[in-house]
Amino acid sequence: MATEVDTDEGDTAPDAYEALVERARRWNTVGSAAGVLQWDQQVMMPPKGTPARSKQLSTLSSLRHDLLTDDDTAALLDTLESASLTDEQAAAVREIRREHERSAAVPVELVEEISEASTEALAAWEEAKAADDFEAFAPYLERNVELKREYATHIDPDRDPYAVLFEDYEPCLPLTQAESILESLREALVPMIDAIRASDHDLAVDTFQGTFPVDDQEALARDALELLAYDFDRGRLDVSSHPFTSGNQFDCRVTTRFDESDVLGALTSTIHEFGHAQYNLGLPKEAWGTPLGESRDLSVHESQSRLFENHVGRSRAFWEAFLPAVHDRLPETTDATVEDAYEAVNQVYEDNLIRVEADELTYHLHIVIRFEIERDLVRGDLAVEDVPTAWNDAYEEYLGVRPETDAEGCLQDIHWSHANFGYFPTYSLGSVMAAQLYDAATDDVDGLESSVASGDVEPLREWLGEHVHRHGSRYETNELVRQATGEDFAADAFLAYVEAKYGALYDL
């Protein structure tokens, strides 16, 4: 039931603002509770718990939608339309208004149906992936696509539905800007990867080859989180079929997955998820539940995960600090040097099919493939039944490899089971942003690399906290980058970084 709010002319703007923010806390608290249930579904829930969980999440989704879109929220926004507000207050109202208007356009029945369908699709995806059976997942994917097309039509029937869905994850960047950055990456990386594959310069790629017990790998993942100063009093490390992070500034949990033959995959995934968690844990506690205490959407979130994964976790400095722990947990690696580890973790694979196990360069071609396929699906230019062939053809064209199974092809990612169409571009946008932010941090913090090499990441954490985390959603994406770096958001820093790094590694 909505809480009645008096919005007569006698109300002051501060009163209306406080009432609006309190309502935002309520609907975000409902969303936070749903997040815990979603975490539980992927980590702890018994396999046959899906029917009840889908109803639970659907109900919470509709409750949040009702609070966000009801007449009281609209009346408070009207009251504040021309009110005199501080910059922070205006930013909070801007974010609430955007979410309110977008949600108000979508019937609550459709919100419930999407929630229920995606919950059921998650269970179906997990079974289909395990069985290598795309046909079993196809009806669930078809339903998700149809529901999200309908969702986009309610928001704006006259626009490209994929552009509308992209705004769920990156509302502050136009799709054209994202497409331009992806095109810049594709044009630069394809010839660079070709040159690397043609190079006869050998790296120590066999440094971590072999099989390593999962228990030892989990201990090593915890060592990495300890070195990075993850706050286990506000977080957990668990295992899931697809690594993810869930939570807020008080409780933010990470998951990873382990493969006995891929110790680096588990390690880099864990560090990636730490970056997400560190962002959430660094948000202002006093602003919890309000836009000023929420992250600035997915491109910025991915910038934090990719920064720690690549600029820290794949750096020589990190391996100077971390290699002793590897030697201790994995005695088979005691002959490995820092340079061996650095080369191994930065090798460019010739035949990798799995995005989350991809190297830093080919990773972006994985993203381009997913972006192009989901865009065509949503626009109606590709039928669901044709996804496996389209996927395999694109891998052969862009990466020179062809999946032999759908489990290692179009079933490998969890996102489409969640109906998260428009999410994938943010991974590459985040990587580009990470390079720009790390350059700025290196310029501002004396001896940053030396600090990391000594096992002290606090100077980097403090810089990110000051320039990114503490702002919540106060600034839109482009402005946040300008505030942090003094430059417009662009691909230049990323391209310069990979050209220098991989040119030296492969003697190009």
Sum this structure up briefly.
With 508 residues, the protein is an all-alpha fold. It contains 20 helices and three strands. It has helices at residues 13-43, 50-69, 71-79, 87-104, 108-131, 134-155, 161-166, 175-198, 214-227, 263-281, 297-312, 316-329, 338-345, 363-379, 387-399, 425-444, 448-453, 458-467, 477-485, 492-505, and strands spanning 237-239, 245-247, 252-256.
Name its key features.
3-stranded mixed beta sheet, mainly alpha, 508 residues, 2 domains, single chain, Neurolysin, domain 3, disordered N terminus
Can you walk through the features of this model?
The chain has 508 residues and is an all-alpha fold. The chain has two domains: 13-166; 175-505, Neurolysin, domain 3. The protein contains 20 helices and three strands. The longest helix has 31 residues, at 13-43.
